Amino acid sequence: MAVQMAGCRNQESDGQEESKAREELVLWSYYETDAQRSGLDNLVNGFNQSQTQYRASWKYVPMTDFDKQLSRSYTEQSLPDMVLIDNPDMPVFIRLGVFEDITQQIESWKLEEEYYKAAVETVSLDGRYYGIPFICNNLGLIYNKEMLKEAGVEPPGTWEELKTAAKELTVGERKGFLMSAVDSEQGAFQILPWILSAGENPDQIGGEKTKEAFVFLDSMVEEGSMSNECINLTQIDVARKFIAGEAAMIENGPWILSMLQEAGISYGITKLPVNRVSSMITGGENIGFIKGKNVEGSLKFFQYCMNGEVMESFCIKTGSLPAKIKKAKKVVKKDEQLRVFEEQMEKAVARTSIPSWSAISKQIPKSFYQMVSKEKTPEEAVDMLPEN
Fold first, then answer.
1. pLDDT digits over 330-346, tens only?
2. DSSP string spanning 260-308?
3. Which fold does the domain 140-279+355-383 belong to in CATH?
4. What's the pTM?
């Protein structure tokens, strides 16, 4: 008995020593869908089981509060080791000195050759790298197949076709089309593709083509085929409206597909309707490595995520594309519904490539709000945008 007890104590002691020996790695993320949270849990647990040097965990920080918390924690010196950050937000924090320069550590990784260009642009400054693109996505038109079939409507490919289809699909409390124009980066992300599709030069956001895009979107609100609630809805809110049957078509991304599948919705996906130019905006997350924290361990976590089928499994589960081009093409072969988004990545534009994007992105949804709430005409609302 004494021998057995001693053995138990030794095992306990060994376990405690192993626990103490492990270095803690903390990741922040704003992932909020069940699939995203579960996918991130799987990555963290898989990494912890794959080695004995580190123990990773992740903390949820709401997207609407993410930048503020990161800034506050930087001031208070209470930062995590790494963050999954919305790619257009990263350059601001690079300039603030939040992220470690990892150029030397990833010298052989060939980011410029093997990752989507628009994603790589968001992790670099003056030829130096401060993070790595993790996953990427963009927006498409998602539609309820049964509703369109019942109305005898084909998925629209142009603005005029969208306007006509949305009008025909608007019945009772159901709107034909819905998007998110909430006062945040999400709203700017959803509005910008319409501006570029109108033919606006990214260097001239706020010009005549921007006004044309605002007038077009406002016309659908005026006709009642898009709810004025759009100015209060996040992208997840829009997905919930779609699931509830309150919208026949929505502008949204692949991260909501798991929600639609769970709800049993018969849906289709096509490219966003085009006016003059087919232009898409890159969304997605980068992993940023916090300066002065455990950068070596964080890089090993990232390398685990990119190993074998780990990233492919994560992306299929969460409805996203790897930022690494070859892996993205492998994912699409396993999940065809992501093909539209993968095809659009080839010519996607990084928001950070737009001059003064930080200021413009804050004003775009505010101007849209003023237009929809009838405080200003579309032209007056666009005139509120800062010059770039």
1. 999 999 999 999 999 98
2. HHHHT--EEEEPPPBSS----B-EEEEEEEBTTS-HHHHHHHHHHHHST
3. D-Maltodextrin-Binding Protein; domain 2 (3.40.190)
4. 0.88
